[in-house]
Amino acid sequence: MTRHDDGGFTLIEMLVVLVVLGIMIGLVVAHGPSRSAGLDARMAANMLAGTLRAARSEAIAADRSVTVVVDGSAGTVRVGGRPARLIGARVAAGQPIVFAPDGSSGGGQIAVTAGTVHKAIAVDWLTGRVSIVDAR
Q1: DSSP-assigned states of every residue in 96-136
Q2: What is the pLDDT of residues 22-58, one digit of tens each?
Q3: What is the distance between the alpha carbons of residues 36 and 46, in angstroms, rounded to a whole number?
Q4: Fold of 37-134
Q5: CA 116 to chain centre
Q6: pLDDT tens per residue across span 94-115
């Protein structure tokens, strides 16, 4: 007499796997997705730097001044008359940064903070060059 083994899973094994998966999903939902303050600061700084570079390019291409306003209390950035965009990190900026048609600017610095990570975006007044540095 031969014995046939189906090689499948028992009901108990399936229930154990489902319980373990349920516990893992419950832990992920309870703690939420993991976030990194460093990544948040870098993303916000890169977004702001890209916005400033695009505004400088627009000023040169359109042969007119373009103003960038960073509102730290609202956490937004606005280029010219366009709608404001959310930044996603705490920012501190002085006065608006104006890019002239030749690419130069009034200069300025924007501080970006997320958790304990600090970044600074500097705009050179003579060339309008935008750079990101670590700040303390």
Answers
A1: PEEE-TTS-B--EEEEEEETTEEEEEEE-TTT--EEEEE--
A2: 998 888 777 766 677 788 888 999 999 999 999 999 9
A3: 15
A4: minor pseudopilin epsh fold (3.55.40)
A5: 15
A6: 899 999 999 999 999 999 998 8
Over residues 82-102, mean pLDDT = 91
The full set of domain ranges for the chain reads 37-134
pTM value is 0.74
What is the DSSP secondary-structure string of 15-47? HHHHHHHHHHHHHHHHH-S---HHHHHHHHHHH
The position carrying tokens 């108990």 is 12
Which position has the token pair 């048609």?
Answer: 101
Report how far Cα 90 is from the mean position of its chain's Cα atoms. 11
Alpha-carbon distance 134 to 108, whole Å? 16
Could you tell me whether strands 117-123 and 130-134 are parallel, antiparallel, or unpaired per DSSP bridges? Answer: antiparallel
CA 66 – CA 69 distance, rounded (Å): 10
pLDDT of residue 89: 83
